[in-house]
Design goal:
The chain is an all-alpha fold. It has one domain: Arp2/3 complex 21 kDa subunit ARPC3 (Orthogonal Bundle). Helix content is about 65%, strand content about 0%. The protein is built from 7 helices and 2 strands, in the order αββαααααα. A two-stranded antiparallel sheet has the order 1-2. α5 packs antiparallel against α6, α5 runs antiparallel to α7 and α6 crosses α7.
């Protein structure tokens, strides 16, 4: 009997794993100890979870963003790991659209940042608003209907959530362009 030796190809590179561990650890820790920043809007707070998920998807790919989303949700009251899939829409959408936008930023920074801002706004609105409105109204029943949860997370929540999912990642892309270069692939390349 002959033994077939094949080279295993990891899903994520060492850089991706390291960035995922650092960003995910910070997101987990901030959520676990309740490190939220108050906002000028009544009842509003900002945690770094959404920003960490988006940043992880930008620098380490979609799987890193999903892992960070899971780590951010584990200590969260009312959600926990059972709801971590709610955060998967953000990194998958961000990763699917990020590489062409990054190339545009390299060619024309102002136009690229505007396109990124609009793209992240659409992604935040579609991925987060629809899923979180469903979760808040149907699962944990903190809102009487889907539309009241939708109103809260979209119209009244835009200044808060828009800052987390749109403004902060845009600032990072504008100021640390080399750091957020997408050096990742969706699936490992065969050697």
């Amino acid at each position: 009997m002959t033994q077939v030796i094949s080279k295993r190809i990891p899903l994520m590179s060492t850089r991706q794993v390291a960035l995922t561990a650092v960003i995910g650890g910070i997101a987990f820790l901030c959520e676990a100890i309740g490190l939220w920043a108050p906002t000028p809007w009544p009842g509003g707070t900002i945690n770094i979870g959404g920003f960490a998920i988006t940043l992880a998807a930008m620098v380490a790919g979609p799987w890193a963003g999903c892992i960070v989303g899971f780590l951010d949700m584990v200590p969260m009251a009312g959600f926990g790991p059972i709801a971590a899939w709610l955060y998967f829409g953000t990194p998958l959408y961000t990763a699917a659209t990020y590489k062409p936008i990054y190339r545009l930023v390299q060619k024309n920074k102002a136009l690229g940042l505007i396109v990124f801002f609009i793209n992240q706004s659409v992604g935040w609105f579609v991925a987060n608003i629809s899923l979180f409105s469903f979760w808040f109204s149907s699962v944990i029943e903190s809102f009487p209907s889907y539309w009241s949860a939708f109103y809260y997370t979209s119209i009244t929540g835009f200044p808060i959530f828009g800052w987390i999912y749109v403004v902060l990642p845009t600032i990072v892309l504008a100021t640390a362009t080399d750091f957020v270069e997408p050096r990742w692939t969706w699936f490992p390349k065969k050697v």
